[in-house]
Amino acid sequence: MIENLSKKRMVFGISCLILLTIVVLIIESKWMKAGSRRQEFVIENNSTCWMRESYEVIKDCHPCTAFEIASRSQGVCVHTHNKEVLKCTSGEIVTRSCDRVAWLDERHYWSFQISLTIVGTLSAAVSFLRQKTLNRRAMLRIQRELGA
Asked: Domain count of the chain?
């Protein structure tokens, strides 16, 4: 297992993992530019006043209901399954499709962090118990050799 690796190989392996992580982050940041992403889907036939004038967000981005998605009653729910309600300065109230629901992303983030904490704690506990078992076996082997 890992205890059989030399220090030089462990440092090399960790360095490769760090380098791979940095490369993935650079590639991901190049491909996923949030500011340059345009809406590439057809806008519902309500209004596009939010493109021409200032607007106020009445209801933040939230998931569409299953009925809205299945029935296609609102065109904005078809593409991303999320919508937000806007009020333009002209007084017109429109809905538009949005990419992410903030509270849903936050919930997914925290569930991921909690699961990582649990897995890390279990890994540390197993590692500690394994080290304790190996130490006990080594001590018994030394005692047998000295007793013989």
From this structure: 2
